[in-house]
Write a structure and sequence with these properties.
8 helices, 7 strands, Spore Coat Polysaccharide Biosynthesis Protein SpsA, Chain A, alpha/beta, seven-stranded mixed sheet, globular
Length: 240
């Protein structure tokens, strides 16, 4: 990487040809001088092509390997290339670049090692209840919050958020392979064990720009139930 570039923003993507151009253009305009990486998870559409056309480096898998592997690969790339800071956003257009910039500012200032964008916490002018999830997500989110409180020993309102900013200390921790379908939750547990400072920061998020979510309805609830089970298993192992 160029000497002047200390920050990488990566985007895990699977068949996001329609949404990626706007996401990448917004990042390039709002965070000039930041390097962009698209982790193409075996897409069968033009995801890799449009990513390159819009100025991003592309790391492509030969087949669909799942979000946990894509997330780990993004952080591994950032750590291996020696970046001081790394951001992550989703490919579906939900994460405004201005909010990611706020998270990066928190990390650069030394306020925390990791800043996580949250739809559910308030403060700094962000009103509570600004995001109204579906009934299925309400149940899943409630279960996940209870599990996170028990295992982390602190409240965490949006544990599956995909909007992150981290420093170099956090990158190798988040680059390790994940064993469940929720890398964000596993990552928070690892960061806690490593003693790093994690801040949950209120942000605005948008609706998905187009297409259908890869995780919705019963699949979303099943994932949350699986993760909650993993959280309690993790807690039992730590207390043996």
């Amino acid at each position: 990487m160029a000497d002047a570039v200390d920050t990488l923003v990566f985007i895990p993507a699977w068949n996001e040809e329609e949404n990626l151009p706007a996401v990448l253009d917004e990042l390039a305009a709002g965070l000039p001088g930041v390097d962009l990486l698209v982790v193409d998870d075996g897409s069968i559409d033009g995801t890799a092509r449009v990513a390159r056309e819009h100025g991003a480096e592309v790391l492509s898998f030969g087949e669909n390997r799942g979000l946990p592997i894509g997330v780990a690969a993004g952080y591994e790339h950032a750590a291996g290339k020696g970046y001081a800071y790394c951001g992550r956003v989703d490919a579906d257009g939900q994460h405004p670049v201005a909010e990611l910039a706020r998270l990066l500012d928190r990390v650069r200032s030394g306020e925390c090692d990791v800043a996580v964008g949250s739809r559910f916490v308030s403060g700094d002018g962000y009103e509570p209840d600004r995001y109204q999830p579906s009934p299925v997500r309400v149940v899943g989110t409630s279960l996940l919050r209870q599990g996170m409180r028990h295992v982390l020993g602190r409240p965490f309102a949006d544990a599956t958020s995909g909007m992150y900013a981290v420093n170099a200390k956090a990158m190798p921790i988040l680059a390790e392979p994940y064993s469940t379908g929720a890398p964000e939750v596993e990552g928070l547990l690892r960061l806690r064990d490593a003693g790093l400072a994690v801040e949950e920061v209120p942000v605005h998020m948008r609706e998905r720009a187009s297409g259908e979510s890869k995780l919705a309805g019963k699949k979303a609830l099943l994932l949350v139930l699986t993760v909650v089970g993993t959280l309690f298993a993790y807690r039992r192992l730590r207390h043996r």
